Amino acid sequence: MLRLVILALAAGAVAGFMPRSARTLRRSMEMKAERQPIMAGNWKLNPPTKTDAVALASAFTELLGEETCSVEPGEMCTEVIAFPPFPFIAPVEEILSEVGVSVGAQSVYFEDKGAYTGAVASSMVQSLGCEYVLCGHSERRTVFKDDDDAINRKVKKVLADGMKPILCIGETKEEYEAGLCQAVCAVQIAKDLAGVSKEEMANVVIAYEPVWAIGTGLVCPSDVAQEVHVGIREFLSKMYDQDVADATRIQYGGSVTPESVDELMSKPDIDGCLVGGASLDAAKFAASATSSGVRWMGRTADAVGRDGTRGIEAAAGGRRRRGGSGGRAPAAVLLRAAESGRSTHMHM
After folding, report:
1. Which of 57, 136, 181, 327 could form a disulfide linkage to 151, CB 3.0–4.6 angstroms apart?
2. What is the DSSP letter of 312?
């Protein structure tokens, strides 16, 4: 019965997937202005040592622009998260927290404790300062054989423990070429979010990652990525309601670079990026985070800051480190540094 319900919902999402009117597009842009952009860097099995991880985190903090969130609450800004390997979470968090950048765990196990050699509980990473956990990344699904039941249990465990899951979904190259992208994403969402309430969805982020574009150099065209994000929102509106669909932040992941992030972030249903290899280059990741913030601030010109300023002034004003002042590099400088290779760089 559950399988029939899932397939019916998936079919409905795909059937409703058609070009939108100018009025609907305008509303979509208005809804995006209400969603805080979110940029995340997945370090995967990198870098090789704690010393390298600390150096990468330190270089990144020195390059951040004014568009990303500081430690002061209430700013209109881009949320930035780094996902280092488990052994490096604590030292990296100590550095990144100084500039308002969060850390997350690349995965967890859904049990609290017990005879599970090699497993890591959500309470463990939370105690190290993690605010987010990746759930269902394609490499966890394929290499470590995480199925939808395990991913669903992880999502619910992360939420129960007061953290936020980033649910990764996406199709293989074969599924993409067969025209099954929308159906695959719908089925994964239905299974992986089973039992997650409408209220809990406020703390869920979805990352669409076409498997065929991860680490391959192949690029999913921004228009295609946008249409997939539209389909995801349409499915969420059927699974929950339109409020959830409008409020849920959806990232794109798959060979994201500073050169591609502006075009991606210009799309009304793409709220951020989950960056892989480029997040191991401090200048490239900082340029990507800064670019996304600039795009968002331009769409929120009526936002009011804490001091009464509006729009970009409200977003950029008052950035502070803990115990110090700002003074970060502008986006143009970051991009030039990335292009010229003057950066701290790690290889995937």
Report:
1. 136
2. H
Burial 21-55 (b: 16+ CB within 10 A, else e): eeeeeeebeebbeebebbbbbbbbebbeeeeebbb
Strand 164-169 versus strand 205-208 pairing type = parallel
Tokens of 66: 């004014």
At 70, list the tokens: 């500081």
Please say whether the beta carbons of 312 and 298 come within 8 A.
Answer: yes
347 is catalytic: no
pLDDT digits (tens, 9 = 90+) for 54-64: 999 999 999 98
Q: What is the pTM of this model?
A: 0.82
209 flagged as catalytic: yes
Catalytic member of 75, 137, 227, 234: 137
**Residue from 66, 75, 79, 209 carrying the catalytic annotation:** 209
Contact 90, 128 (CB under 8 A): yes
